[in-house]
Amino acid sequence: MELNRRETLALGLGAAAIVALPVRFAAAATGDEMIAAFTGGAAVAEGGVTITAPEIAENGNTVPVAVASENAVSIMVLAMGNPTPGVATFNFGEGAGAHSASTRMRLAGTQDVVAIAKMADGSFARAAATVKVTIGGCGG
Amino acid sequence: MISRRDFLQVAMATSALYGASGFGNWSRLAAQQALTQDELLQFDDFGNVTLIHMTDIHAQMTPVYFREPEVNIGVGDNKGFVPHITGADYRKMYGIADGSPTAYALTYDDFAALGKTYGRIGGMDRAATVINSIRAARPDALLLDGGDTWHGSYSCYHTAGQDVVNIMAALKPDAMTFHWEFTLGQDRVRELVAASPFAMLGQNIFNNEWNEPAEEFKAYEMFERGGVKIAVIGQAFPYMPIANPGWMFPDFSFGIRDERMQEVVDEVRAAGAQLVVCLSHNGFDVDKKMASRVKGIDVILTGHTHDALPEPFLVGETILIASGSHGKFVSRVDLDVRDGRMMGFRHKLIPLFADVIAPDPAVAAVIEAERAPFKSQMEEVIGRTAADTTLFRRGNFNGSWDDLICDALMSEREADIAMSPGVRWGASILPDSDITREDMWTTTSMTYGKCYRTEMTGEFIHTILEDVADNLFNPDPYYQQGGDMVRIGGMGYGIDIGQPMGSRITDMVLLKTGEKIDPAKTYVVAGWASVNEGTEGPQIWDVVESHIKKLGTVSVKPNSNVKVTGV
After folding, report:
1. In terms of CA atoms, which chain A residue is nearest residue B242?
2. Does A103 touch chain B (CB under 8 A)?
3. B391 with B359, same domain?
4. Quick check: helix, strand or coil at residue B264?
5. Are B433 and B139 in contact (CB under 8 A)?
6. B159 interfaces chain A, CB cutoff of 8 Å
7. Is A136 on the interface with B (CB under 8 A)?
């Protein structure tokens, strides 16, 4: 049997139950799997949600990201290249004024950051931004 | 009826540098007769608004030699466009005669011979003469400084920028934006900004803790000149904490932030601005992209990449002005603003030939006073250039100054390999000339100049080269972080510009043995300008001075250790 990374992590989780490692290890699905779980496999349209992140991170350990979508009830943010891609899922209640949110995330390296918005009508929208994490230096 | 677009084109055709001196005009006397101050200043006033732009002066208060780049490779959509056109192609594009003063000011070929003919360029006392002349015709002209002003000389370093601040104050600018200024440290920047009599701008300077616009800097300043409401929006260098040591200014965050730029443009338009000017330190290609994404900017005064262009570059209906570096040029931009919009322009890039333009006595006196405490230190001769050697830096890859610095690092620090930052600043020195301490400091002065000596694996050296190469050759300018390619001594390599990150750098060879660099093996690397806090070692200028003094006369052979493909 050939173990893929996910199965290896799942096996690790089984062990974790015994040694009581943090439960968040359970979230170590791939980004695509998390999107599939979030959307239930429904089609996802490009646009309709905005994601704002720096083109090049000033500090990969704390990268600001903001998402907005007027009609969203929920926006999931994923750092697709992180070992654990989940960053945050923002839920907007009926009384929410602005359907926007911002936070900071840690990025393991240059990668796409993806926002998936679930709209009030049950449809889904997607936006992505590439954030470069560089070792820096040499500024002309 | 003439459309706005046609009007721009007509106006553009009238803009030209003086460039009619004949080829082979080699004697200084002939050059001076061919070129007069009146000709350099000649300008038929146009429209109702005048902008004066200088940028990237790098503390060069007195005239310098500065060789423009030979290698300046454009990638992606910018391939084949200015400023990525150099030498003969550049002269052909703008109709500049070989060997003319204009060719000398704007292109690299025959630099040593032309430099001996036409002399030094720049100096803030010459700039003052030009600015005063423009103000005599247009008292309402705005003088805008694009930043990289308080950095780059012996006296600037020793006064933490105060000498430059005092001299620039004598020119009476109206606004300024920033880059290397922040390497003075955030406390000093705050102090100088708070004391400034003119506007200190940066719409993209944010408070790092709250990710909100920093209260120390205004996004824009509104001026009313010639009956026109003009908004000048500042755009500081976007990648300061990455390209320079972020620990020196931890409270601040930058970035391009073109969404906010659009908001600010909309805000100033709503507030009645008839002309929107962006005073930018983005770099030319980033400004081109920003001009295509942000609507409503009439003029972008570009900076950072040190490009000098004799004509504006148009992106849609935005004109981009590139005014060079090291105090070599002053740009004058006259605009016709009517009915709330820019209808046309006339432009001239004015080279400050030091032997042609008379220094302004008042500013010359200020410069002399600021130099006085350091004069003997600065003017001390530490070596000479050989007859075969022009020292210069600017270009995508190693210049002769960089090779000399890398040699100094390897020799003085007993290292296999040397790394020197790909900064664009540093004046040139002609063959058969004295090298003064001041000259050498134009290429080494910085607030984080300590030389590290460390061990790196071949794999890590490769990673560094790939990382820096992507910061220069990523096809999207928004992902280009700043400088030219890191300069390497003691090692050769091949670079395929067109490859993606991770695949550009090949054939790394240790020059002293001719062996291939082994990814697993460890090499002793000496370098300077680390962005990491707590770097220890001697200052780079002490290392280089010691090396030059040992050599006496400096001869640097042309560097063929970097093989560039995929251009």
Report:
1. A136
2. no
3. no
4. helix
5. no
6. no
7. yes
How buried is B194 (Cβ within 10 angstroms: 0-12 exposed, 13-18 middle, 19+ buried)?
Answer: exposed
Q: Do B529 and A138 touch (CB under 8 A)?
A: yes
Q: Position B328: which residue type?
A: K
**Closest C-alpha among A128, A109, A126 to residue A56:** A109
- Residues B157, B242, single domain; the answer is yes
**Distance in angstroms (rounded) separating the CA atoms of residues B242 and B246:** 7
**Domains with residue ranges and CATH for chain A:** 30-131 (2.60.40.2470)
Q: Tally the domains of chain B.
A: 2
Asked if residue B126 is part of any domain, the answer here is yes
Domain co-membership, B362 together with B387: no
Count the helices and strands in chain A (H runs, E runs): 2, 8
CB-based contact (8 Å) between B443 and chain A?
Answer: no
Give the start-end residues of each E strand in B71-227: 121-122, 142-145, 175-176, 199-200, 206-207, 212-213, 220-225
In degrees and rounded to multiples of 5, residue B424 shows phi and psi of: -100, -5
Shared domain check, B272 and B146: yes
Handedness of CA B432, B433, B434, B436 (dihedral sign): negative
The verdict on a CB contact (< 8 Å) between A137 and B468 is: yes
Please indicate, yes or no, whether residues B152 and B286 belong to a single structural domain of this protein.
yes
Give the gap in angstroms from C-alpha A37 to the nearest C-alpha of chain B.
32
Among B326, B342, B370, the domain-final residue is B370
Contacts of B159-163 spanning 24+ positions with Cβ under 8 A: B159/B370, B160/B184, B160/B188, B161/B59, B161/B188, B161/B192, B163/B59, B163/B61, B163/B370, B163/B371
Distance from CA of A12 to the nearest CA of B (A): 31
Q: Please indicate, yes or no, if residue B97 is contained in any of the structural domains.
A: yes
pLDDT in tens, chain B (567 residues): 334 444 444 334 333 322 222 222 333 444 455 689 998 999 999 999 999 999 999 999 999 999 999 999 999 999 999 999 999 999 999 999 999 999 999 999 999 999 999 999 999 999 999 999 999 999 999 999 999 999 999 999 999 999 999 999 999 999 999 999 999 999 999 999 999 999 999 999 999 999 999 999 999 999 999 899 999 999 999 999 999 999 999 999 999 999 999 999 999 999 999 999 999 999 999 999 999 999 999 999 999 999 999 999 999 999 999 999 999 999 999 999 998 889 999 999 999 999 999 999 999 999 999 999 999 999 999 999 999 999 999 999 999 999 999 999 999 999 999 999 999 999 999 999 999 999 999 999 999 999 999 999 999 999 999 999 999 999 999 999 878 999 999 999 999 999 999 999 999 999 999 999 999 999 999 999 999 999 999 999 999 999 999 999 999 999 999 999 999
Could you tell me which chain A residue has the CA closest to the CA of B260? Answer: A52
ipTM of the complex: 0.85
Q: How many C-beta atoms lie closer than 10 Å to residue B476's C-beta?
A: 16
Structural domain including B436 reads 381-565
Whether B148 is covered by a domain: the verdict is yes
CATH number at residue B402: 3.90.780.10
